[in-house]
Amino acid sequence: xxxxxxxxxxxxxxxxxxxxxxxxxxxxxxxxxxxxxxxxxxxxxxxxxxxxxxxxxxxxxxxxxxxxxxxxxxxxxxxxxxxxxxxxxxxxxxxxxxxxxxxxxxxxxxxxxxxxxxxxxxxxxxxxxxxxxxxxxxxxxxxxxxxxxxxxxxxxxxxxxxxxxxxxxxxxxxxxxxxxxxxxxxxxxxxxxxxxxxxxx
Length: 201
Hints:
Elements (H helix, E strand, L loop, with lengths): L18 E2 L3 E5 L5 H8 L2 H4 L11 H9 L15 E7 L9 E9 L5 E6 L8 H15 L17 E7 L3 H9 L3 E8 L2 E9 L2
Parallel strand pairs: 5-6
Antiparallel strand pairs: 1-2, 2-3, 3-4, 4-5, 6-8, 7-8
């Protein structure tokens, strides 16, 4: 199956909004988060289920990865912006590192693709599910542009997508809990992935 294609409906503000629940705060990632993100992305068990497969070796490499979250294609008002968030555990004292993960819309063109990772020390606590629900709430509430698809076909409902390795049962469960459904599969660099999709409410 080929990958999804969808017009860019969203208008992304800069900076993006923030949102919080009783235990989590999601706020746009800044350069100051590089060390905390390196602590997550340098873990082999995190790298194993993400791209690239090798653990990050330096904060500089982490900064290069952070730069890939900036939109490079799509409408002119999207290019140079991002929707990249730090997941902060509000129960951790402010004097300590509160960033326990990150999640983002990795791209909007040719389709909005979600990515996320949390530190192994908080796996199993529901943080990824809760953070994704919070981020989706922000994403769907952003302003939209009018998209002219012509008379060729009726407009498909707007969706968000995620690509997830078939063997990554934990991440598949996170997506399903947030309402995503498998709409296809494909193989990339020898890795079998599911294509998950969620319609805009």
